[in-house]
Amino acid sequence: MTEQQPGDAVPVAQRGSWSSFLKSIASMSGDLSSLTAPPFILSPISLTEYPAYWCERPELFAAIADGKTSEERALAVLKWFISTLKGQYTTRNESAGSEKKPLNPALGELFYGYWPDQDGRGKTTLLTEQVSHHPPITAYVIENEKKGLKLVGHNAQKTSFSTGSIIVKQIGHAVLTVKLPAGGEEQYLLTLPRLRIDGLWYGAPYIELSEQSYIVGGGFVGVIEYKGKGYFSGKSHSFKATLTPQPGRGGSATKEIVVEGTWHQNSKFTTGGHGSFHDVSGPKEVVTAVGAEASGEMGPMETRKLWELVAKGIREGDFELASREKTRIENEMRQRRKDETASGVPWALKHFVPIANDPVYEELAKHTKIAPSTEDAYVFQENWPQTLREKK
């Protein structure tokens, strides 16, 4: 087998720009999000669509509501969360041969979609809005009204370069609210793992998860440790999740539950249970995009309309078209920001209102080592577009 050489995965015509890109990364000491990547490494999808990865297995999301006890629901939340990771962090590597850099969203960019009701699981609807450009922050809501489930969160990234890898600190959190059949509700706080993007030297980037993320709620504390593959040992995409009842909570549950495996394949119980825990070898369900205009069409700020020609250029290998249209959009957005500054009228968000401190985060973060102890949030204003209400 021939040993892979630096730049082997880079198209010959793009190797000069890739080399310059790597030098730019290595020389920057601050956030890398503003760097312009070579066209061949761009994804045709904006970050505004990424919240759809939370629910590409909608049956697992719906199953959370079917848990009869707090322990069953906490395990269902953990299973659903672990099952989202494959779509979020390996999909592009598997389909395109390497990780691709998503398009940087414009402030006010929107995406709407749904997964249909099947086998009584209820319809699941999605709404996302780019609520900040500097730093880039995407807010989202995913709701299954029939099952009484709603996930509201926001996500941002802070990137840096270290020892040949791009390190991505994911900022933000999500809160899952579960309405209980007997009345009342449970809320779960979910935090996000840190990412390490390796393979840059060869022009074939891929993502590995690192450190920990947390799921806290329903009387349980879940800690997910991402181990990954080191230089000399370990297995790619490995994880260990530990679910522990809070003192005085969790009903009759007193035992610790441990699950181990690979998040992009499958896992099993190693403590407190038996057999398989999750398996994502089956097909996923891609979201159905919906236009929010009264006519059913997509408006100018809806992501697939806004980036239509850029995406076309990337998919067809017409990087001149992609670059030209991307530059045009970015220049238009810069001018819009200048005009707003000059007029003193800031951009008005359409679906969310920012708050400086999320009380659910503050309360649930107390039960484990989540830092910081407080965090801001974006409150959804319950103003679904009519075209999605019809899907609900």
Automatic annotation (TrEMBL):
Entry superkingdom: Eukaryota
GO terms of molecular function: oxysterol binding
Gene3D superfamilies (UniProt xref): 1.10.287.2720, 2.40.160.120, 3.30.70.3490, 6.10.250.1430
Alphabetized Pfam families for the sequence: Oxysterol_BP
Record-level GO cellular component terms: cytosol; membrane
Similarity-based family: Belongs to the OSBP family.
The protein's name in its UniProt record: Oxysterol-binding protein
Organism (species): Mycena albidolilacea
